[in-house]
Write a structure and sequence with these properties.
The chain is of the alpha/beta class. The strands form 2 sheets. A 5-stranded parallel β-sheet has the order 2-3-1-4-8. A 3-stranded antiparallel β-sheet has the order 6-5-7. The protein binds BIS(adenosine)-5'-pentaphosphate.
Length: 215
């Protein structure tokens, strides 16, 4: 099964994708993670996109479609979770073509709904273990007192993202509403869309996604 997790910044896409990887043996394809990796390793492309990402704007379609294209080749029985991709109608069309070129299908699109106020709270309280990508939150999932990641056990590798501040978040939200939210109608028209209440607890959202994938 190949699915898209669609939602604004901080909706919980990464958190839910990690759970699906563990429980369903799926592969998470996060364009945000791929771009941060390129930025951290100082590749030409990484240097090019660093400022764009820090401001909260979208990177060009050409770059992100290229990143996804590289990952789709070959067999993957558990299926892909597209996390943060597509984000524009052009990217959605490109994904459709790439999937059919690879003989794959897109099976479901899960829209995660969270109001803006909760997004600000979540984003400004987030930290991530740079060892394994486990996501923490000062309010709902604080970093353990012993400084060890609960997932990989490595110590003191917690980081905050450069774009996790209120100013960049405003631009990220604007980009979501202007460029990404039209995808809700796009996939609704294709009868692929399910919406879940992303405001529930992590476990409640997991349950809603599970039900959506089983119907
Ligand atoms: P990206 O990395 O994709 O960021 P994003 O879409 O802004 O989403 P986030 O990663 O911020 O949030 P999330 O929904 O994964 O939430 P999380 O699970 O972490 O993109 C970053 C940038 O890269 C973009 O701005 C753009 O520049 C560029 N980019 C990436 N893809 C692109 C593309 N396709 N095209 C163009 N440019 C692209 O959760 C957030 C917090 O909430 C955490 O602290 C978590 O613990 C907490 N939390 C999660 N679920 C719950 C819950 N149910 N209850 C309470 N707390 C929760």
């Amino acid at each position: 099964m190949n699915i898209i997790l669609l939602g604004p910044p901080g909706a919980g896409k990464g958190t839910q994708a990690r759970h699906l990887v563990e429980t369903r043996n799926m592969v998470q394809l996060s364009t945000g993670d791929m771009l941060r990796e390129a930025k951290d390793s100082g590749t030409e492309m990484g240097n090019m996109v660093a400022g764009v990402m820090a401001r909260g704007e979208l990177v060009t379609d050409e770059i992100v479609i290229g990143l996804i294209r590289e990952k789709l080749e070959g067999d993957n029985k558990g299926g892909f979770i597209f996390d943060g991709f597509p984000r524009t109608l052009e990217q959605a069309d490109a994904l459709g073509h790439l999937m059919s070129d690879e003989g794959k299908t897109l099976d479901a699109v899960i829209e995660m709904r969270v109001d803006d106020e909760a997004l600000v709270d979540r984003i400004t309280a987030r930290s991530t273990c740079s060892g394994c990508g486990e996501v923490y939150n000062d309010n709902t999932k604080p970093i353990p007192e012993n400084g060890k990641c609960t997932s990989c056990g490595q110590e003191n590798l917690f980081t905050r993202r450069a774009d996790d501040n209120e100013e960049s978040l405003k631009t990220r939200l604007m980009a979501y509403y202007k460029q990404t939210s039209p995808l809700i109608g796009y996939y609704y028209a294709k009868e692929m869309l399910s919406s879940v209440n992303g405001l529930g607890t992590v476990e409640a959202v997991q349950g809603e996604i599970k039900s959506a994938l089983e119907t």
